[in-house]
Write a structure and sequence with these properties.
This protein has 237 residues and is of the alpha/beta class. It is built from 8 helices and 8 strands; from the N terminus they run αβαβαβαβαβαβαβαβ. It has an 8-stranded mixed sheet, sandwiched between helices. Helix 1 packs across helix 4.
Length: 237
């Protein structure tokens, strides 16, 4: 497999769901990233099936059975790699659509010898639909696209139908952890999560910043702009 075989964007969405929560982006890759993608994708990579709900064999993917954390929108992968390195008893499945970010995470996986990370390319919701119910120990949605314009709010990932799907894949006691630097989106997230009948707010409102969540580049950018950070942690009852 070569980098030219790796799709730069997610395949056209199926007719069942045409509204996507992300905007596929192209980007230049360094020679290091290109080499990492060519060599490591066959080992650690997973293309999200084009048909939403296609089953995913997690034990075969990771080569073991362990609690699983789903990282939706892993960006350049630094946060995923850092958390996975500090948490070797759980597996991490990172889902991203930006090819340079996928390549960078693959490079980090190799450089840090991370055996508990796999990287999926495609729509996270299509992937989640194919996971067994109650198969996830945690879902992380850190700094998703806020889609700030009102006409684009329908593209936000944290909305009732998507949350219901994510919650159904959490094991009892599993956590859905969201973070954003957009105050309006934070309030909308909180209202949506609180309204889900199967989720319980772990902190009765916005959570204190968890020490285990590394500072992301989006967070640093927000802090430089004096924007507050909002964490929300809900558990499946």
């Amino acid at each position: 497999m070569t980098s030219t075989d790796f799709p730069a964007a997610v395949p056209a969405p199926p007719a069942a769901r045409t509204i996507r929560t992300f905007h596929p982006r192209r980007g230049r890759m360094s020679s290091r990233q290109t080499e990492a993608l060519d060599r490591l994708w066959p080992v650690y990579g997973l293309h999200v099936p084009e048909r939403p709900g296609t089953p995913v064999d997690l034990a075969a993917l990771f080569g073991r059975r362990a609690p699983l954390v789903l990282e939706i929108g892993s960006g350049m992968g630094d946060t995923t790699a850092e958390m996975a390195a500090a948490d070797p008893d759980r597996d991490y499945l990172a889902v991203e659509v930006h090819t340079p970010g996928i390549a960078n995470l693959l490079d980090l996986v190799e450089r840090h010898g991370l055996r508990n990370v796999r990287v999926a390319q495609g729509d996270a919701l299509d992937l989640v639909a194919g996971l067994p119910e109650a198969s996830l120990d945690a879902v992380h949605v850190f700094f998703p696209d806020p889609w700030p314009k009102s006409r684009h709010h329908k593209r936000r990932i944290i909305q009732p139908a998507h949350v219901a799907l994510l919650r159904s894949r959490l094991a009892p006691g599993g956590t859905l952890h969201c973070a954003t630097d957009w105050a309006e989106y934070a309030e909308a997230m909180r209202a949506t999560l609180d309204a889900d009948p199967g989720l319980v707010d772990a902190h009765d409102g916005f959570a204190p910043r968890p020490a285990h969540r590394p500072v992301t580049k989006f967070e640093r950018r927000a802090l430089r702009a004096d924007r507050p950070i909002f964490d929300l942690i809900h558990r499946r009852s």
